[in-house]
Specification:
mainly alpha; Sufe protein. Chain: A; globular
């Protein structure tokens, strides 16, 4: 997975079309999520596209998220969100202001509200997972 700061630097120099392409490429880079994990239990509510997130905890205590979407741009947004938290310890995720980390990408102004409406729910799910494992 790419470094979050490098992504931010690259993103700010791109025009709107290239930003879409970057998000689509990010989505393509997500680790494959096996179909049996795409269930009602892993479905993120409130997204216009179907979004599934399946968290696991690694032996070293870090969290790893498998995720997928049936929409390319949405899948890219998921990949961007996960870049901020993937492979980190629950306490580190809880200490991260994910909204603030995403702010420089200005997704709400770059993309339609349909595409961004599920972001708070994705973040809430990631935070809830981190809280559960931190306890």
């Amino acid at each position: 997975m790419r470094d979050f700061a490098d992504l931010q630097d690259e993103y700010e120099f791109l025009d709107a079309d290239d930003r879409y392409r970057l998000l689509i490429d990010l989505g393509r880079s997500l680790e494959d999520m096996p179909e049996p994990l795409k269930t009602d239990a892993t479905l993120v509510r409130g997204c216009s596209a179907s979004v599934w997130v399946y968290p696991t905890r690694r032996d070293d205590g870090t969290l790893h998220f498998l995720a997928d979407s049936n929409a390319a741009i949405t899948k890219g947004i998921i990949a961007l969100v996960l870049t901020a938290v993937q492979g980190r310890r629950p306490a580190d995720i809880l200490a991260t202001d994910i909204d603030a980390a995403l702010a420089p990408f200005d997704l709400r102004n770059q993309l339609s509200s349909n595409r961004t409406q599920g972001i708070p729910n994705m973040i809430a799910l990631i935070r809830a997972t981190a809280e559960r494992y931190a306890a």
